[in-house]
Amino acid sequence: MLLERISSPQDVRDLDAADLPLLCSEIRQAILSSSASVGGHIGSNLGVVELTVALHRVFDSPTDKLIFDVSHQTYAHKMLTGRAANYLDAERFGGLSGFTSPAESEHDLFSVGHTSTSVSLACGMAKARDLMGADYNVVAVIGDGSISGGLAFEGFDNLAELGTGVIVIVNDNGWSIAENHGGIYRNLAELRESEGTAPNNFFRSLGLDYRFLANGNDEAAVERALLELRDIDHPVVLHVCTVKGSGYEPAEDDAEGWHHVGPFDIESGTYEALRRSRCEKSETYADITGRHLLMRMAADERVVGISAATPYIMGFTKPRRDAAGSQFVDVGIAEEHAVTYAAGLARAGAKPVLGLYGVFMQRAYDQLWHDLCLNNLPAVILDFGSSVYGTSDATHLSFFDLALQGALPNLRCLAPTCREEYLAMLDWAIDQDSRPVVVRVPGNGVVSNPDFALDPKALAAEFALPRYDVVHEGSDVAILALGSFFSLGESLCDALSAPADGGPALDATLVNPRFATELDEAALDDLARSHRVVVTLEDGVLEGGWGEKVARYLGPTSVRVLCYGVRKGFPDRFDADELLAENGMTLEAITADIRAALS
Amino acid sequence: MLLERISSPQDVRDLDAADLPLLCSEIRQAILSSSASVGGHIGSNLGVVELTVALHRVFDSPTDKLIFDVSHQTYAHKMLTGRAANYLDAERFGGLSGFTSPAESEHDLFSVGHTSTSVSLACGMAKARDLMGADYNVVAVIGDGSISGGLAFEGFDNLAELGTGVIVIVNDNGWSIAENHGGIYRNLAELRESEGTAPNNFFRSLGLDYRFLANGNDEAAVERALLELRDIDHPVVLHVCTVKGSGYEPAEDDAEGWHHVGPFDIESGTYEALRRSRCEKSETYADITGRHLLMRMAADERVVGISAATPYIMGFTKPRRDAAGSQFVDVGIAEEHAVTYAAGLARAGAKPVLGLYGVFMQRAYDQLWHDLCLNNLPAVILDFGSSVYGTSDATHLSFFDLALQGALPNLRCLAPTCREEYLAMLDWAIDQDSRPVVVRVPGNGVVSNPDFALDPKALAAEFALPRYDVVHEGSDVAILALGSFFSLGESLCDALSAPADGGPALDATLVNPRFATELDEAALDDLARSHRVVVTLEDGVLEGGWGEKVARYLGPTSVRVLCYGVRKGFPDRFDADELLAENGMTLEAITADIRAALS
């Protein structure tokens, strides 16, 4: 096996050209067998095998700089830079990050998981090279799906006047996560069909040199094209066409389905849809949301669902997108536009419901602040996956969302504790027209509470002003357990009432705060009068989060406040329960803290 | 005078075409005389007089929707929609917002002050129109300078597949705030020179219909062009060339200088450079920064200054930009790119120093989190104007920056109290290579402290770990006064030590915390042992800010914590001292709170 003998890119360069088809085939097989076992980004990785081999034959990494956009397509790159065993040895499958990671290899320049960054990073590295009088190639590899993000445009726009050598490879497989959306994709299609000769050319319009390569899955052809560009003295775009899922028929036939899958059977091509959380075993909030929104859309033509290239997180599978028709819009990877577009929709009387991963809400901070909140427009944002039980890659941590939202004026962020409360909040958010509302969809699985009942007519009063729900009145200590961590609050009350160590039982007050960025000051005043300790539990980062607001409000009183959340940091591929334990969030640790504070 | 008789757009439509040159001349005169008195955005407003008149003659606002990008160019629009008196009557000069404001008029659809939003807003309004079966025109007016922002690209990209009527007017005056930067501007220039016929066409490359109008200062010509587009059934871009400062020679001759000025003399064309703060009477942090960075650049070719279209905030006037040469880069209005570009520079060993207004840091939240902080790269960001004494337009509030940064891992935010400490922090930030550093430049004027002394060799130890500077050790109450509010802390200590009402004197401890997003836990532990009350003072929003971190950390102790800052909200054109008073931040109110907490 050739791949086993590749310990560095030099070994790739030393191979005979005649051996390369075999190498590519081995890489492809390794992608399939490792991903079949642990899941992964199938389509994009199969598509860039030949491109990656050619990159490492033409350029001399790490002296030459290879920058991968999103970097979910770097399995072949990892195999060729000393990490092949992680894709060949079943015991090591899944041992590497799914993204480039400087901690793993000097060939990985950045921790990257978000789109559209590579052109700007390449501009920066090329500029530094020139300032410091160095001499190497800077190469960015960006997928067509990443080009719709505004940052990529800003990068291309600045690249055009950089006046020095940078090579940007646009790897065009014709797909984003789902279908591509936006005018740029019509242009890429024109360019593909005309073999790069169409008169309209986005890249040339910005003043960039442009080259076209029809078959990016022909290693020799890619190698020739790259050789022509090596050591170029100005910015150039090489538009390379590849096939998403190349070489594996099921993935070629269903590009959306095979973008990212869980374990699968190679022979039959059946896969598990990737679970976003260990807890979503059966019912998912995605499905609950899709079903409910479709019903709301049918009853009201003003309701419009919006996604930024991830329709599945809000349950909008292809059949549901078809059913929604013009009432569902995927704007592609363009979170800023998605939020500002929602602001425009709300201003003109529609009822936009935008579904975002918490981590990608970060890409639209100013649009939230300036377009939505300053204008106080009644758009609804569903904040998915925001939990320590969500995605655990450092690039995709989704539990910074409350800190992000906490200072946004006019915004109401509601944190439901169960599916019934979620639907009540969602309905209220859609029906009201006084402000932007975020509903923080629990990211730790669906809890159903059949006892939960809100009279639909009472909804307006329920969520119109910040009001806590005191679920149980006890004494001494009050547990304020926000949203997805309400069940942790219940467990904590149980543990306090029946201590394992036989200590004195405590009858703790249990509160469902419901409002994640605003305080119910009257309720806090009441609690402060009748309790000595207040505990806040939140499924998110501690700094700038919700609990700190409670601590600040109660700061002038004699009440002791204990805030629990995750300290800021970039933990990577962690076990959520271990992370909570490291942050003092076990029942044992919290009960001990409470007893100490009371004594 | 015609203008006095215009109370609504209908009056504009009722005018004889022959009267329009006079109307335009009156508008131009009103712009000049009101701005000469109170300052304003001169160049852009003079440039769009004819365009604005034509818009209100062809379209029927507010039924038809006019959306202005940035909206600093809407003086004529305001005059034609019932607000002319504010530009004609000297007593009412400056009484209106400098931006569109729905609170002022139904003709102002959004509160807008940031760039690049109009295309996305227009997409949203058009989509809502279609969903609801309505029938009106949606028109966005976007300046060429705003097109470099990625959000505008996302908007154009989505506009191309919207499949319904939207008119986007690209008002091309050839200037951003300073010179335009980016490949798109070469294309706009080509299109201007070829009267819209150049083969490379950015808008057409996205699949958009495109029209060109050479003289946008010819009202009749604009009117004819708009009439052709009214009720169009698909998205179209009208590229209109106007002259920034049109009709006023000084502004035509110096577009950058006259972008936004303070009061000026119309005859001689001499103006005050706009003061960003009431306190910056003589020495400014802009000038201090420009001078210091130029010196650092001369000594080290790795140091590179970066601006996103506002070089003047960091003191990079044209002569300093010329002196810096390739070591200063203006990337245009592209904050996301600016941050990610800085990350690339730092990764390759350069020493980027990026100057941003605090409010525009918001546009790059994810780039801060993902590109800079996750990769822990040693770029320096200078955070300007972040103070309640900064710009007071609701659109430009710059005191949310600490809440924004508070949860960003790896980031060190330093808050200097005087010019000497600022330069020490700036030097340390540039020289270190362990992490991204923000220096929060005081936005309330330059304080010099000649006694401040840090041995340059001791700098590494000073700022390498969060360490508070206990300036005075007292008892009972500790005042932690952050950065620009350190002088408030000094005044507070004085007030406590010599009470005006003859009450008991308090010898308060005074602390310069220096670290705005991290805690010195050992110092807080010490303070908690020896004080009964801890006070935090910060020049920023309370929710999610720095003081709440202190309150959370001390929550489990018996110390009372009083946090002072501004409650989240969008105050508009406020008096800073009044705003502080409303938030309980007068010496009288705070001393009373402290005495109550001690009693």
UniProtKB/TrEMBL annotation, chains A, B:
An MF annotation (GO) of this entry: magnesium ion binding
CDD domains from the UniProt entry: TPP_DXS (cd02007), TPP_PYR_DXS_TK_like (cd07033)
Keyword hit for Cell wall biogenesis/degradation: no
A family per Pfam: Transketolase_C
Transketolase-like pyrimidine-binding domain mapped to chain residues: 283-448
Keyword Cell membrane (UniProt): no
EC number assigned by the record: 2.2.1.7
Gene3D superfamilies (UniProt xref): 3.40.50.920, 3.40.50.970
GO biological process, one term: thiamine biosynthetic process
Keywords: Isoprene biosynthesis, Magnesium, Metal-binding, Thiamine biosynthesis, Thiamine pyrophosphate, Transferase
Essential cofactor(s): thiamine diphosphate; Mg(2+)
Pathway: Metabolic intermediate biosynthesis; 1-deoxy-D-xylulose 5-phosphate biosynthesis; 1-deoxy-D-xylulose 5-phosphate from D-glyceraldehyde 3-phosphate and pyruvate: step 1/1
GO cellular component terms listed in the entry, alphabetical order: cytosol
Family in the record: Belongs to the transketolase family. DXPS subfamily.
Classification via PANTHER family: 1-D-DEOXYXYLULOSE 5-PHOSPHATE SYNTHASE-RELATED, 1-DEOXY-D-XYLULOSE-5-PHOSPHATE SYNTHASE
Assembly and oligomerization: Homodimer.
This protein's name: 1-deoxy-D-xylulose-5-phosphate synthase
Native species: Collinsella intestinalis
